[in-house]
Amino acid sequence: MNRRQMLRAALAPALVVGFGTACSEPQPAGGTDVVDPGAAPATPAPSPTPSQPAAPLTGLPVSAAPVATRQALAVPIRVTPSTAPAGLGSADLVYVEFAESDSLHLTAVFQSRDATKIGPVTEIRPVDFRSAGVLRPFVGYDGGPTGFLSQFEKSGLAGITPADDGDKVFASDYTSTAALWKAAPKGGQPPTPVLDYATAGAALAGRDLVPARELTVAVSGGPPMVWRYDEQKSVWVGKVGTATVTAASVIVLTMEYRTLDVRNPSPRSLPSATVFGEGAVLAVSGPSSARGTWRKPGQQLVCNVADLGGDLLHPQPGNAWVIYAPTSAKVTVK
């Protein structure tokens, strides 16, 4: 099932109707009515069960129908080993770039759930609009190098910074989904689904499926990122900064990194993931893992993740973390 078929199927209400029958012979007056023992007694048909449409970025039913059609929000977040990030538990998608000085640059995308506190909000970087541009989000960010700001303006995405908002959207280094949706221009479009979520009982991949309990992404010069499967809760559990985070699926895309030299407002060199292109994939979802390939030709195109036979992977519905691993990283699953 492709993404369009999946979304159309999720939007159709499911009607569950039960039927019961009883058979008996006409009996003379005063006789005993003998019921066929093989027939079930008649029962009233249950009322139709209402269903909500699926959220485009998780494949799960939304809390209320209008939620499925609202615009996505994207917020860049800087995380160091000592940072306690807020709001990640409500994000539908989180993209992870390995940044400088053992830090992570996260692009957290919100659409189906609310978060009262998100942050610490950091500067815009190319990875933010290159990853999330296809989702058409409204972006809350904290400035950035002039070259990055120019690229963001050319991306066609709208956004807001602390310098713009007059303390209405940001409080110190934090914001919220309510404040960002209130600041967003009217007429924002819902995001394009980016993953082909599994239907009930479907496997992550049609081939080369391997049981998985632990996923590790080890990058030179920094602590490894480790995810472990919680079988009782059916989620993958990891640690980002000092926060424990969970995901229905973790998808590791291996790619080249390059160094970007920026001058304004301060000279520095920054690592940057090469989001456009193709490479290897290692994905975990449920108690399984699968290897494959990824391909993203450009900003306005979805990043397709496929198994080694070329068929799309089918992660379990729920939130997903997409990790951009440098080619030098060691990615293992056991």
TrEMBL record:
Region (Disordered), start-end ranges: 27-59
Annotated signal peptide: 1-24
Residue ranges occupied by any DUF3048 domain in the UniProt entry: 57-171
SUPFAM superfamilies the UniProt entry points to: YerB-like (SSF159774)
Superkingdom to which the source organism belongs: Bacteria
Composition skew (Pro residues), residue ranges: 43-53
InterPro entries referenced in this protein's UniProt entry, alphabetically: DUF3048_N (IPR021416), YerB-like_sf (IPR023158)
Keywords, comma-separated and alphabetical: Signal
Protein name: DUF3048 domain-containing protein
